[in-house]
Amino acid sequence: MSEQTMLAAVVTGFGGPEQVALAEVPAPRPEAGQLRVKVTAAGLNPVDGAVRAGVFGGAGQRLGLGWDVSGEIDEIGAGVSGWNTGDRVVGLHYGPVKPLGTHAQYVVLDATAVAAAPATVDAVTAAGLPLAGLTAARAVDLLELAPGSSVLITGAAGVVGGFAVQLAARAGLVVTALAGADDEEYVRSLGATGFVRRGEAPAGPVDGVLDAAVLGEAALGSVRDGGVYVGLIPNHAPAAERGVRVVEQEVAADGEHLARLVALVDAGALTLRVAETFPLGEAAKAHAHLGTPGVRGRIILTA
Question: Where in the numbering of this chain does the Enoyl reductase (ER) domain appear (predicted)?
């Protein structure tokens, strides 16, 4: 393969994992304000499965996959300062409809979308941080609850939910985790002081809900009058009722915020969890694994 091309996981039609193909494409080059990262590892997120299934449109186009990246800077665009080639970074490549994503050998990102990689975990583990971590952090911020307030976090054993439990507990909130019965010990280890089994409701109303499991109205019903509900998927929140403030987060490629999460990882205050790794050439197999019940942690592709 020439220096001008690279391998990337893409889809050109919608459907199941069989739609994911490995293509040889021109390697991207950074423009002003951008960096090129040689990919070491990249997270596989549920949003990638949604892109593959056509949820976001883009019919007739070649669509790249992947939002998370961990790797090394290998080329720097004009006007970028503070970075050097060889620097280890993590970053977020925002956007569901794009010709190339992070499931590739190289990716170009805005310099503002990356942060120095954690020093205390390897590149594979670090690849699971950007999308889920930024999503959870923004959702906890949007709760706008004072320390001592109660919050129910649904899907607490998932990647986003697990980050949210840790960040909410760190913010001084009293966390009740909703998850499967087998996950109680795990979510309590993250900082939850209360636990509710999936399919059940908390004993009493809570000040806020962070709905990582996208339960919608069922989760909203657990919020006290005048409380807050935070949803994680734009345009999927239930209608407000009883004075409950209903808000939705939408993640952003924010390198400064990501750097704060990296600092928490290095301080031992934010735990990362990898479920399984696949080489880039087995991206379709990884997508098939994405839908397997009971997967705990992020699936990672290695370039």
Answer: 15-301
